[in-house]
Structures are given as C-alpha cells and as structure tokens.
Request: fold
Amino acid sequence: MTYLIFGLIVAYIVISELKLNNPFVAPQDRGRWEVISGDKLILDGKLINLWKLSCPKPNSEIGAKAKELAVRYLSNAPGSCRTEIRNGVVIGNCYQEGSSPLREVLIASGYCQESLF
Reply:
C-alpha cells in the first residue's frame, strides 16, 4: 500500500512539474510523437506498442490520465524508443533523456499495469 501511495505522489509531482502545449501531440528533436493511449505511440508514422504494458482505453477516466501522463512525459525533453518487431508488431521501450523509461513512469503512477506480453 505504501508503494502505491509513493507511486501516486511521484506521478503527481511529475504531472505537476511538466508543461504541456498540446494535450495529444508532443514534438521531439528526432521526429514527431503522437500518443494514441498510455501504451501506444506513433513516432514518425510508426505505431509502437510499449513493451509489457497494459493501460485502460483512453476513453475511460484512468486511460485518459495515462494518455495525458505519456504526453507530458514525451513533451518535456528529447526522447527515443528502442524497438523490435515481434510477430509483425512493433514493441518498444521509450525513454526521455535523464529520466526513467515511460513504461516505468506509467506503472509507478498506478494508471497502467505490467503485462505478460
């Protein structure tokens, strides 16, 4: 229970500190990000599913918060994704310079959960 509360506090601080110009598109130095949901991004036209992450659909309250957190994370500094293709699906782990991976931030926030795939 204490880890959940700590994670929510960290997520709140992260959300409070980041500035957001556009709620759904975050420009990056190496391309253009578009956040589809907490666990799906588009980078330069390529759909990336975040590795072993499951978030609620963005039309739900928690899913919308996960999506907003992903947008804020990606809009704060240049980032990149390490990707691979598995069964025709692009799986990736996205990073912001000097920060934890997006996947870890979303899990710590409590909005998303680690998945098996």
